[in-house]
């Protein structure tokens, strides 16, 4: 863990008010008040960029930015100035002083550190880490070893509560897995447990909440024990899946 900043100013009273938060694929962040959002048009983005995450929240929430260097940078919404839809917003890597070549991949918004981070690796393993593992007593801005470096990361996902996930593989197979079936690990950089059985050169292609899909026969893909191979995706379910990739 990186030491807390020395000589910090005494805690100040932070104004709290409703905001809409936006995070883009290229690493830009915007905090926009509801009034400003109602008055503006489309979100201005760099060419080729897109909004990965947006939510309604408040100015006091904590923000966790997970990076490609397997580190997590902690901030608050109030650390960023109010923005507008008509501007690009703050470039997070610069705003938080990230290392050269380091970029944020994922943002978590939390008022209480409840829920889990799920890290899916290309070898079919998943590390389920309580978000509370990233909470610190002191005002630490950066935590090292945010997730494992033993295998390439397929994707990461924050879940505020247990749910069912639809995991699709590069072999056009899918399995529905209840996150309660995945044992939690308190070590942030745990390699996780085997969830998907893969053959050589196969990887996890996507992971989405199962309730976002309209599957004709969901029981076909539901598994009782892990790891599992999953079932070949039927044509009637393929169209729904393709729209989410």
List the helices and strands and how they pair.
Blueprint (H helix, E strand, L loop, with lengths): L17 E7 L3 E5 L1 H6 L11 E8 L3 E6 L4 E5 L13 E2 H4 L8 E7 L5 E6 L3 E6 L11 E2 L9 E7 L4 E6 L3 E6 L14 E2 L9 E6 L21 E2 L2 H8 L3
Antiparallel strand pairs: 1-2, 1-3, 2-6, 4-5, 4-7, 5-10, 8-9, 8-11, 9-14, 12-13, 12-15, 13-16
Residues in helices, as a percent range: under 10%
The geometry reads as globular
Residue windows where pLDDT falls under 50 for at least 5 positions: 240-245
Work out the radius of gyration.
19 Å
Strand order of the largest sheet: 3-1-2-6
Nearest-integer average pLDDT: 92
How much β-strand is present in the residues? 25-35%
Biggest pleated-sheet summary: 4 strands, antiparallel
| Total DSSP helices | 3
Determine the N-to-C terminus distance. 35 Å
Secondary-structure element series: EEHEEEEHEEEEEEEEEEH
How many distinct beta strands? 16
Oligomer: single chain
SSE class: mainly beta
Write a compact overview of the structure shown.
The protein is mainly beta.
